[in-house]
Write a structure and sequence with these properties.
Distance between the termini: 40 Å
Structural class: alpha+beta
Shape: globular
Number of strands: 10
Strand content: 15-25%
Length: 374
């Protein structure tokens, strides 16, 4: 698949300023954006219907159905837009944590360097205060959405490993990633280190009927050693890391099979250890016996795909070591996710499932020994 051009940014003089809400996705605005992207040449959008999709807490996602004043080859019947949450509190949080800025900047600066795994983006911009943004994408439907609770097949896991390598390889060892202020890796690391240890008593109480035997012991051991874990990150080669590379953020067989896996929700990306996303996905996405039977071969597939895409100076031995070490990231995500969200039935089931799966993955891979021994 060819790389996509960089998306438009706001330009009021060209008819496509930053839109800030669903009602602003007008026929005139969409016509200007599609023409500037070379998608339309003579037709105009005459009518728009929007429908909310998904249930994101930090953003509003809508599918846009378009009507035109004439038939034109390649004119999309539907598009997808993502904008800031309608909640003022969520918008403020999205700005303070740089979640909106991180995602918009990803589509502006990094997505055009990726050949597969992300949707073409027609528009991407954000307000000066970081609280309002608009992303306009091609519609990747029809597709199969991943489901964190039910897990996935080994075949889907293999497709996710290939895509993880496709996303990582273009940025392998790129030191400029650390200079991008919108990524702010330190802020994310500080958040995990500050939030996780003091939350452990609450975790034990909130999930006492949902966590499997021994899981709390692993979680407490990790919480006691979390700062040491993060000091070990510098020993792994860095690339772009999605950080939440799991089933709920994936579409399989997207665009009716043209795209094997499409990755959504780039609000958490940072420069990070190369094997982290692969380890996180397998630990979160596969049921226990499937993971145990296929884990090393899936990690090896990820490694082979990196080498195929030109990565050098990275041995299989280091890849497997890093994969085992960064199984801890999944426990981070599960526990911190619980710490920053309110209790709901589905939310607690999803988070406790993640915590159970990742803790067992850490036991199986000897992750805590790697953390303690450096």
């Amino acid at each position: 698949m060819a790389k996509h051009p960089a998306p438009l940014r706001s330009d009021a003089s060209a008819g496509h300023p930053l839109v800030r809400n669903e009602a602003s996705l007008t026929p005139q605005w969409l016509t200007a954006v599609l023409r500037a992207n070379g998608v339309l040449t003579s037709s105009s959008v005459t009518a728009v219907r929007t429908q909310p999709i998904g249930n994101g807490l930090m953003g509003l996602n809508v599918r846009i159905a378009l009507e035109y004043d004439g038939a034109e080859p390649g004119a999309p019947k539907t598009l997808v837009s993502k904008m800031a949450s309608t909640s003022a509190e969520s918008r403020a949080s999205g700005a303070s944590l740089k979640l909106y800025l991180r995602e918009v900047s990803f589509y502006q600066e990094l997505a055009p360097k990726i050949e597969n795994g992300v949707a073409r983006t027609f528009f991407a911009d954000i307000s000066d205060d970081g609280q309002e943004f608009c992303l306009l994408f091609e519609d990747m439907a029809p597709a199969r959405m991943g489901d964190q609770l039910t897990g996935c097949s080994v075949a889907d896991a293999r497709a996710a490993m290939v895509t993880a390598a496709e996303l990582a390889a273009p940025f392998w060892g790129d030191a400029s990633l650390n200079d991008a202020p919108w990524m702010d890796r330190k802020m994310m690391t500080d958040m995990y280190c500050a939030a996780l240890p003091p939350f452990m008593p609450t975790l034990a109480e909130r999930f006492k009927k949902l966590l499997e035997p021994g899981v709390l012991d692993v979680a407490q051991d990790y919480a006691d050693n979390i700062e040491r874990y993060y000091t070990l990150h510098s020993k792994s080669p860095f690339t772009v890391s999605h950080q939440d590379y799991r089933l709920d953020n994936m579409m399989f067989d997207a665009k009716d099979g043209d795209v094997p896996v499409a990755i959504l929700d780039w609000q958490t990306l940072v420069p990070g250890p190369a094997a982290l996303d692969a380890s996180y996905f397998v630990g979160a996405g596969l049921l226990l016996e499937d993971r145990r039977a296929n884990e090393e071969s899936l990690a090896r597939l990820y490694y082979d795909e990196l080498i195929k895409r030109g990565v050098t100076g990275f041995s299989w031995e280091q890849c497997w070591h890093d994969y085992r070490l960064h199984a801890a990231h999944g426990l981070d995500m599960g526990i911190v996710g619980a710490a920053i969200t309110s209790s709901t039935e589905r939310g607690d089931r999803m988070l406790s499932t993640m915590i159970n799966r990742h803790a067992q993955q850490m036991i199986d891979l000897g992750t805590m020994d790697l953390i303690r021994n450096g």
